[in-house]
Design brief:
This protein is mostly helical. The protein is built from three helices and no strands.
Amino acid sequence: MSFWLELLICFFLLTGSLFALIGAIGLFRLPDFFTRLHGPTKATTLGVGGIIIGSAIFFSHHGEGLSLHELLITLFLFITAPVSAHMLAKAAMQQKLETIERTRGRPWD
C-alpha cells in the first residue's frame, strides 16, 4: 500500500475518531436535553461516517472493490440519525422538559 493511501486512511480514521469524541464529550458536558441531543446526532454521525469512509478505502484496496456493507451502514446511519433525533425532540417537547435559560425556542410557553 502506498504512503499517500495510508495517509488518507489515517486522516479519515483520526478525523472520524475526533468527531466521535467531540460528540461523546458534548453528550456528557452539555446542560439540558435539547443541547445534549445536538452533540451525538451531529458530531457522532460525522465521526462514524469518517471511520466508515476510511474503512471503505482500506478494504476496497485490499479486497475486490467497494463493499456493499459499508455503503448500507452509511445509508442507514445518515437516514436514521436525523429521524431519531427529531422524534426524541418532539417527545421532549410534548413532555415539556425543563431547559436552561440559554436554550432558545420554547413553543410550549
